[in-house]
């Protein structure tokens, strides 16, 4: 990692750290925070924008139709687990800090559920038990690597007529409640206008929030279905029963989606407020020729197609983050990426809702997405807008497939340093407790082995290495000196495999459930061997 040095001589003595804290300076009491090297990072530090301390770097892992994982239905437990470990290793190697796992693709489950049957993408048969709990396994493996796991749900989709609707498990909600199902074009959906469906979807989401140690809940763009020519979404019965207070069916449909979003948000806040809730809508809210507040675009509008009023969610604060799917290149006249990024940035400005951009890794190689800079061209524009707090890539298989070279450029130009995940609103809670015992030992091969004490309430640990002999806390204000983020349940140790020349100090900080960061713990210092 970081700067290489000449290999240590075989006769170099081992140097133990082993300095549990910095020696007091002139005028410092040995018990003071300054003397212990535990000064909080000041708010007025100047941070390097090239190395943001916090940034969303995520990828979607799609299970529907076995797009990503499992790679095919019917793999045994060991093969499925090996595939997922390999994906998480690749995500870590690419500098990502979050994955968005598709846990409810067609009103079924990639987790042990008493409410809905196992997804067919696991065993090839809906309701088929894979012999383990994939979500529990995924959370454990992601956290061990210092990676967040967000559980991705489709609220309403039941699946395709062939094979999904023709082979529904007896325990599927659409089989138990046939009145909930609306068939439209070649797919089936749970009726968003039925209050019982809304309550069911909320219960399913909260069941996962309550039982699994996930970091976030994520909805994609599937609310009401994308329009199909010549087809009618037949929600007449629900509209007659529940739409009387609305001037139009469109307003009623938007209210159905808004209500689901607000209720899920409220229930998450009441249950585990550190679990962040976000949505990745279609990239166009409204075009300017439909609404002066809309974007200078000419494409399909999520406001009137999926009845997804994203601006209402931002205004009302019923989401923690938004990930518009901006799957178009810069200069595309119908939906120009260079028009949409500043437009979405303006919508979230000053609201407290985070903005991340959905990136089309699956399109690399197509017109507008060619060459090694296919993705860095997009991130270059993002960097000009401070409201953009990161990116999500669809999907993870493409990052080491068709987009491998483009992601290599992203890694070199934008992900050369790790980044902490964005923090949840902790509501003014106190900062996490400190790491109080940090040891650093140089090994015979010249690497540096760090170890530290367990801290109650830690979710992740962040490891820093600062060159020089000083104590400036602003050195930890950005990610310039961040080496890694590690899991709290893994071994509390880290090996700096490419230590820097000259004197250095190491710090380890704590990230709690809210991903709030502690002050830096006492420094462990090493001098050149």
UniProtKB/TrEMBL annotation:
Keywords: Signal. Transmembrane segments: none annotated. Residues 1-22 form the signal peptide. The keyword Signal applies. It comes from the Bacteria. The keyword Signal applies. Gene3D superfamilies: Glycosidases, Immunoglobulins. Residues 55-366 form the Glycosyl hydrolase-like domain. This is Family 10 glycosylhydrolase. It comes from Streptomonospora arabica.
């Amino acid at each position: 990692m970081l700067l290489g040095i000449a290999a240590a001589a075989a006769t170099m003595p081992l140097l133990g750290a082993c300095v549990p804290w910095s020696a007091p300076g002139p005028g410092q009491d040995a018990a003071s925070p300054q003397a212990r090297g535990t000064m909080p990072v000041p708010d007025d530090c100047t941070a390097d924008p090239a190395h943001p301390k916090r940034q969303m770097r995520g990828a979607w892992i799609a299970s529907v139709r076995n797009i990503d994982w499992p790679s095919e239905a019917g793999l045994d437990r060991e093969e499925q687990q090996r595939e997922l470990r390999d994906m998480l290793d690749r995500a870590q190697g690419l500098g990502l800090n979050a994955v968005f796992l598709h846990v409810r693709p067609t009103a079924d489950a990639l987790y042990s559920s008493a409410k809905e049957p196992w997804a067919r993408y696991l065993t090839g048969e809906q309701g088929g038990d894979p012999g383990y709990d994939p979500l529990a396994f995924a959370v454990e493996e992601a956290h061990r690597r210092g990676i967040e796991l967000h559980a991705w749900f489709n609220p309403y989709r039941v699946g395709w007529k062939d094979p999904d609707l023709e082979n529904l498990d007896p325990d599927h909600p659409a089989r138990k409640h046939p009145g909930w199902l609306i068939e439209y074009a070649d797919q089936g959906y749970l009726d968003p206008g039925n209050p019982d469906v809304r309550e069911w979807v909320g219960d399913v989401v909260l069941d996962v929030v309550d039982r699994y140690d996930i970091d976030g809940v994520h909805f994609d763009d599937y609310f009401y279905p994308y329009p199909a020519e010549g087809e009618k979404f037949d929600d007449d019965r629900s509209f007659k029963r529940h739409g009387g207070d609305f001037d139009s069916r469109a307003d009623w449909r938007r209210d159905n989606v808004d209500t689901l979003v607000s209720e899920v948000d409220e229930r998450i806040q009441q249950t585990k407020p550190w679990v962040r809730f976000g949505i990745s809508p279609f990239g166009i809210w409204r075009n300017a020729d439909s609404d002066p507040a809309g974007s200078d675009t000419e494409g399909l509008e999520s406001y009137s197609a999926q009845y997804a009023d994203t601006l209402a969610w931002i205004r009302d604060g019923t989401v923690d983050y938004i990930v518009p799917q901006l799957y178009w290149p810069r200069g595309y006249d119908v939906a120009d990426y260079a028009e949409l990024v500043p437009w979405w940035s303006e919508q979230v400005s000053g609201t407290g809702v985070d903005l991340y951009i959905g990136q089309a890794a699956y399109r690399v190689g197509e017109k507008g997405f060619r060459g090694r800079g296919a993705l860095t061209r997009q991130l270059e524009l993002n960097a000009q807008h401070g409201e953009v707090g990161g990116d999500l890539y669809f999907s993870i298989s493409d990052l080491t497939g068709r987009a491998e070279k483009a992601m290599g450029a992203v890694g070199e130009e934008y992900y050369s340093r790790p980044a902490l995940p964005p923090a949840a609103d902790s509501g003014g809670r106190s900062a996490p407790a400190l790491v109080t015992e940090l040891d650093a030992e140089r090994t015979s091969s010249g690497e540096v082995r760090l170890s530290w004490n367990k801290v109650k309430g830690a979710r992740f640990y962040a490891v820093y290495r600062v060159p020089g002999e000083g104590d400036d806390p602003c050195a930890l204000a950005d990610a310039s000196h961040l080496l890694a983020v590690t899991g709290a349940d893994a071994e509390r140790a880290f090996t700096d495999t490419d230590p820097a020349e000259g004197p250095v100090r190491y710090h380890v900080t704590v990230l709690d459930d809210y991903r709030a960061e502690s002050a830096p713990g006492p420094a462990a210092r090493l001098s050149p061997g």
